[in-house]
Design goal:
By secondary structure, this protein is an alpha+beta fold. The chain is built from 8 helices and 17 strands. α3 crosses α4 and α6 packs across α7. The longest helix has 27 residues. The N terminus is likely disordered.
């Protein structure tokens, strides 16, 4: 089946399964629209942007558009459940989301978009008409001042809605940037607002989510403003581990942290040179090991002595 009107002459294949590929083997993807029926046989390429569109129907099939030679042999099931699995796990654990809440969220129409490392997702001053859910990879919120220096304000992982505030704040007052190659599920504001009107409990869940987001911001202010630099880094790492552990992304005390030394410095308010010294000292002391975008905690007791971590601000249960 050919994509109708695609200037690239791409081949369109409908999958109930979609490949999960290494970054180097991921194909370029166009936006697809298709008939919302089980037997949809046509689609129209409307953009050469690297993104996918889910078409919600009874089979919840994914129209996957790519050059024929790039279509992978192995496949892995991708449904609304798998796309939203980290979000669902987080909301069930932290907000007590009910099955009917998750069913309502699962019915939202989603558009998948892939962003490359350091690619802007939203810029300061943009007026978005949609929110994003992190499906894969990491992104950050940041502010850049007049002399070009940047402060990273928050790190976002799968299951996060980093621009949920754009539902009610029309203009972005900061940047949202891909920290690694990442995939976002895009949800139109109109669809979210309709859902919240029809399901008030969803509105309460999102309201709680933004309050937890504010609590994390408060802790970051304390971290940058009051803790010594080596404590700042240790605290940032423990916080990230606890958030990743909640969605099952920590294995044997090893987890992904794709920040460079410069980016860690931007998150902590110190130079990359200072960050390098801290990392070396933590390695020498046998506390942490940084390697190829991952962190391994070597000595939990030493780490906790540095951090004195109080995770109440993460509000990890409905009663917290």
């Amino acid at each position: 089946m050919r994509c109708i009107g695609c200037p690239l002459g791409m081949q369109l294949t409908c999958f109930n399964f979609v490949p999960i590929l290494p970054k180097s083997r991921r194909p370029n993807i166009c936006c697809v629209t298709a008939e919302q029926t089980r037997d949809s046989r046509t689609a129209k390429c409307v953009s050469a942007a690297q993104r996918l569109t889910f078409v919600r129907n009874t089979a919840f099939r994914l129209c996957f558009l790519a050059p024929a030679r790039a279509i992978a042999r192995g496949t892995l099931e991708v449904t609304s459940d798998t796309i939203m699995a980290p979000l669902f796990l987080r909301l069930q654990t932290t907000a007590g989301a009910r099955p009917e809440d998750l069913t309502a969220l699962k019915a939202l129409p989603l558009t998948l978009r892939h962003y490359r490392l350091n690619q802007p997702i939203l810029r300061d001053g943009d007026r978005p008409s949609e929110c994003s859910l992190v499906v894969d990879g990491f992104c950050v919120r940041s502010k850049t001042i007049a002399d070009g220096r940047r402060q990273i304000l928050s790190i976002h992982i799968p299951g996060d809605l980093p621009d949920l505030q754009s539902l009610h704040l029309a203009t972005m007052d900061h940047d949202l940037v891909a920290l690694s190659d990442c995939t976002l599920a895009i949800i139109a504001h109109t669809a979210l607002k309709d859902l919240i009107r029809s399901q008030p409990t969803i509105g309460n869940i999102f309201w709680r989510d933004t309050l937890v987001d504010a609590a994390v911001f408060r802790e970051w202010i304390v971290n940058v403003g009051q803790r010594a630099a080596h404590n700042r880094l240790a605290h940032l790492i423990v916080e990230l581990r606890e958030r990743l552990r909640l969605i099952g992304y920590v294995v044997d005390n090893t987890f992904a942290m794709p920040l460079t030394q410069e980016q860690l410095g931007e998150a902590m308010g110190v130079t990359s040179v200072h960050t390098n010294r801290i990392i070396r000292q933590l390695r020498v002391d046998g506390v942490l090991e940084f390697q190829r975008g991952t962190v391994t905690i070597l000595d939990e007791d030493k780490l906790q002595e540095l951090v004195q971590f109080d995770g109440r601000y993460l509000h990890g249960s409905p009663s917290a």
